[in-house]
Design goal:
CATH architecture: Sandwich
Number of domains: 1
CATH topology: Jelly Rolls
CATH class: Mainly Beta
Distance between the termini: 78 Å
Mean pLDDT: 86
Number of strands: 8
Order of helices and strands: HEEEHEEEEE
Strand content: 25-35%
Low-confidence stretches: none
Length: 182
Amino acid sequence: MRSAMIAVFVSCIVAIIVALSATAGSYALWNGTATVSGATITAGSSAITINGAATASPALGALGPGESAVTPLTIVNTGSTPVSLAVTGTTIGTDAASLAVAPSLTATLTPVADATGCVVGLTAGSTGALSGFTTTASPISLAKGASTTLCLQLALATSAPSVVQGKSAAFTMALTGTQVAP
């Protein structure tokens, strides 16, 4: 009799386990499901142009001691994110002429309303020796699709030595647009 009771008890346990496993997942009376499909996310981009191109090679002409030359640089944020705009470095050519002239050159970069405002004598912008010139301490915010005009002024020191006469200084100025976090 005892073994018959154990058999009934085990049978009941097995029946409960089978019933519970058949309803695994939810004990709700009704269930519903929906699928989200076709979703796409696209990463933004940061890009700028200078005077309508990826690079600019302005012609600044010949300077005498104490003279300056200017060139307007129109910067457009062509990316899909706002950027912080700054000159992140300026390097001088390694040829003898560049190395001789560069120590006598000063750069000034000033925001102006438009290209007609780019005139000699602006002093409100960032100024420093051409070699290593940066504006990282005073970046300019530029919204997506927006533009700004900067006036680049180069001045030859009045104390420029006579050995720089007739020589040119090649330089590269890195203008960087860094994405601004929302």
